[in-house]
Amino acid sequence: MDIDAAMKLRQLLIYGLCLVVSAMFATAAAAERRVALVVGISGYKNAPTLPNTINDSNAIAALFKSIGFDVVISRNDLGVVDFKRTVREFLITAENADMAVVYYAGHGIEIGGVNYLIPMDARLSHDYDVDDEAIALDRIVWALEPVRRLRLILLDACRDNPFAAKLRSASRSPTRGGLAKLEEISADTLVAFAAKAGSISYDGDGVNSPYATALLRHLTEPGVDVRIALGRVRDEVLAMTGGRQEPFIYGSLGGATISLVPPLDATKVAPVPPPVAAAPIPRPVVPVPALPKPVAVNPTLTITPPAAKVELPKPPLPAQAAPAIADPCVRDEARLAHLRANPAPDEIINFQREVACQRLRPQVQRLFESFASDATPSPGSAAALVPVPALPKSVVVNSTPPTTPPAAKVELPRPPLPAQAAAEITDPCVRDEARLARLRAYPAPDEIVNFLHEVACQRLREQVQRLFESYASGTTSSPGSDAAPQPALNQPAQNEPVRAEDTCVRDTARLVRIRAEPTLKAITEFEKELGCEQLRSQLLRLRQSVAP
Question: Are 311 and 288 in contact (CB under 8 A)?
């Protein structure tokens, strides 16, 4: 017995040691320090203003904050003194960092082979003024020398030289536009130009420049090496500008994968835990596989079949993924492009659950949110069966029964309830859930307004309110419509008021019209004229869903 007790004690000690070592490695991985400096210059006093630079810098700063950077210094419209002071401040901040990123949007020029970033108050009457009134790129590179693992400089500054006329007679003649290529860069440093040396970049017609738009989409993809991410940025900018603007990268990194955001499963530590009990498995239903061939459901059932149900599949876990016949990203990219061109709410919901390409998940999620801002019921909620007017061609329901089969219905994922038929008649929440699910799939403003006043289930009232705020165009009913008059919407509905300002009513109606036929031009014009700030996040998601 003493020997057995000693063996058990030894095993416990070894297990505890494994836990401690795993925790130490997890802490060390999580302790990587990332810092960023973001500067945007727009309101130049002695040069043309740049319309998008402030939007670009604010969006990039928000991006770095959203992925957990330890320090993000964001400054706009800096004079030369403040610009130099900010660079010095960042030098101190980056001394003990593992990763440091600098993003600059504004005017930049090249004189005598040296690249300079132009502050807001620069005059540059002569070439020798540049050392006093501008910031040399070499100063930024030097400030990042103490950074241990990655030094990344992103320059959206390759524009036409606004001071060329003043400096034409100077001894160090400037180029017509763009920046000069870099010959010597220290190891573990990348300098990315928005356009290759000697060429210019464009502000574009949207809220952000093409280069900033591509950075926002690709730079922080989880687990993607920064060089691959910048390559995708290059491809997208070339496509957006018709080949006129080609981003370029100078510098080199080692052979290890370096990404600004670790893989999604990199932070999960599994130090030999006891087996986790499996989640309860719902009653067997027939899922719809994402295959091109038709799948028959209950092909041999001949007598009184129950209502055919199709369960929308959950996103597969990585460990359960079957070997793909072809590249899933190619297939999913084609499907995403089709849905962007011809959006259909039902197909978008199905695609959001079936997408297999991990790097496309954020884009599919944004497309889903732009058409249905109120999330669908979770698997544990008591979601009701929603009648489907026409089944997809890839599913054949009850193909052999000679008699008329019951209406096919699609069930949102949830464990089936045994007394469901009786509950649908007596329980007001079940009835309201069915009505809410139908309105989510096929939104009709007048029906949403009526449902807002008639909902009896208290726990669904907030969801109905959010659905009303996302889709209700009935707040601006036409003179001949049968919708309830505007004052009725402002009255309390069962002790919960519905608030609507005149500006938000107008903008909500316009957002509904744009959602029906979304175009990038219409969205851009609406963003400039938007008066209801609470709709801005929905408009941003709509832009992201239709952006190329």
Answer: yes
Taking the CA atoms of 498, 503, 507 and 510 in sequence, report the sign of the dihedral they define. Answer: positive
Nearest of 492, 484, 500 to residue 535 by alpha carbon? 500
Distance in angstroms (rounded) separating the CA atoms of residues 123 and 137 = 18
Helix (H, G, I), strand (E, B) or coil at 296: strand
Q: How many CA atoms lie within 13 A of 136 on its CB side?
A: 15
Q: Where are the beta strands (DSSP E) in 56-204?
A: 71-76, 99-105, 108-111, 114-117, 135-136, 150-156, 189-193
Query: What pTM was computed for the model?
Result: 0.46
CA distances from 359 to 226, 237, 327, 525 (A): 14, 18, 13, 30
The region of weakest confidence among 130-134, 213-217, 407-411 is 407-411
Report pLDDT digits (tens) over 57-68: 999 999 999 999
Extract the tokens encoding 460.
Answer: 């669904």
- Say whether 375 sits in a helix, a strand or coil: coil
For 436-446, how does the pLDDT look when each residue is reduced to its tens digit (9 = 90+)?
A: 888 877 777 77
Amino acid at 263: P
In sequence order, the β-bridge partners of residue 371 are none
Rounded CA gap, 231 and 225, in Å? 10
Q: Mean of the pLDDT values across residues 99-121? A: 91
480 HSE (CA, 13 A, CB side): 0
